[in-house]
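Section handout 9: paired folding examples.
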Amino acid sequence: MAEPTNSILDVRREERFPTLTHAELERLRRFGEPRAYAEDEAWLAGSGVMLDAKGFVTTGAEAEAGRPPLETSLAGAFAIGDVRSGSVKRVAAAVGEGAQVVAALHAYLAPRVTPGT
C-alpha cells in the first residue's frame, strides 16, 4: 500500500513551522546570546578597524578625518547597519547604507582598476 502524501499545505506548514528536536531547541536558545570575548579574540582585533567604546565600528569622520561617510579607519573597508557606530539599528536604514556603499566602493576602486583587466 502506498504511503499517504502530504498536501502542499502540510508541506509548507512544516517548512515554515518545523518540529524541532530537543537538541535543535537548545542550540537555538544558545544562538545569539550575548557573549564576552577574551581580550585576544576581540571583535575585529588586529584588523586596523577602529571601534567605539561600545564595540561598534566607527565610520566616516568619526573613524578618521576626511573619510567618506561609511568607510572605516581601514581604507577600502566599509561598514553598514547594526555594526556601525551611531546607526539607527533599522533594516531599511541598513539597506540604504548598502546602496550608498556600492557607489563608494566604485569610487574607491576606480583609480585602482586598470582598463581591460
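Moving on to protein 2 of 2.
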Amino acid sequence: MALDSKDVVKIAHLARLQVAETDLEAYAAELSKILDLVEQMNAVDTSGVEPMAHPLHMAQRMRADAVTETNQREAFQAIAPAVEDGLYLVPKVIE
C-alpha cells in the first residue's frame, strides 16, 4: 500500500503531530514500507500455529493462595475519620 504526502498530512493531523513539509515524502515512504510489511505478515498462513501468551517458553511461578497477614480491620477503622456499620464513609465525589 503506497501512501502519499496527503495521507501523511491526514495521519499527522489525526495523531496531533506536526510534520514539516520537507519531511512529508520521507514519512510517506517509511509508512508505506511498514504497511507493506504488515501485508506480508498477513499473507502468512498461521492456521496451524498455537497462539502464545509470551514469546518465551516459561512456566509461570505460582505461590500458594494462603493468608499471610492477620486481620487488622478494627485497628484500621479505629483511626479512620468516619466509619459506619464496618464501612468507611467518604465524601461524595460525583454529583
